[in-house]
Amino acid sequence: MFAYREFVWLDFLQEERKVRERFEMNKREQILLGILILLIVGVLSAVLILVSATSPMKKAENQAANVAKSYANVENVDHFYAFTRKETYFTVVGKNDKNEEVAVIVPKESDKVTVVPMKDGVAQGQAEATVLDRHKDVSKIRKANLGMFDGKVVWEVVGETAKGKITYYLLDFKDGADVNEK
After folding, report:
1. Is 175 helix (H, G, I), strand (E, B) or coil?
2. pTM for the whole structure
3. What is the pLDDT of residues 46-78, one digit of tens each?
């Protein structure tokens, strides 16, 4: 009887060792698991940072779109611009209920909304081409924003020189003339 108990006990220990060996990880597996966990945490952190960073701009775009709908009956927003010089403006461009393309410029700090028909001014592509034509040191255009400066509707065109220097130009929306900052 004693031998049988020993046999059962040894059998139990062998089974326990097999189970433990099956679930034990070698050093390589532990390192890979650690790297995988770090990658997952890193990706999740990056996604959270990206979402929180873009959230205020998306909120501003939605608010500007709502203002455009109420002030100018803009049904669909085609473009959104954020413009900051002396003040911050959010601009949406879209077609109104009369199928006319309009820009609705919403100041961040006041209720004075400006609505302009896009046909009454220079298009974004024209503003960009004007900067490239007038300023030979600019090799490429990074972006353009529509906003207000000193009571005028303006295009802010951001260019880059061949040496990587970033330059900013203000053009009058009505005729594309350079606007001097004071």
Report:
1. coil
2. 0.69
3. 988 887 776 777 788 888 888 888 888 898 889
